[in-house]
Amino acid sequence: MSFIHQDPQFTDLVHQEATELQFYSRDSAPIAVDTVVQFGQVLGKITASGEYVPVDPAATDGSDVAKVVAIVPVDTTDQTDAIDIPVMARQCYLINQGLVFGDLTEAQITTATAELKQAGMLTVNASGPTSDVDLFALGFEPIGKIV
To answer: Which CATH class is domain 10-126?
Structure first.
């Protein structure tokens, strides 16, 4: 019997995002040269350059803190400049099973997950909260009102 392999989809990673303003949960992030980023990879920001790399708790350049989650894969090993990619950056539910932490230990994953929560990204299991759960009911403040 043969099987069809399907790459991860957006809904394998993002359970719900803020709906008050279209795409408010998303942002753009420059990925550092010589970096391979997977779909769902948790990224930290290098303070000096403002570029993103996979989160590394051992780093001392700012990339030790989880900031955003990649929603597309990218390989910048053959590039001379950083490449901007879309990321989840705020007010959303992310599915635990879709997140990529690399070689982090369970304790480091717990820390990175808490850092994502501080940025407004909550993590849930694949079954997650029901779709009628509103982000604002969990304490997220609306940033504006569409008229």
So the answer is: mainly beta
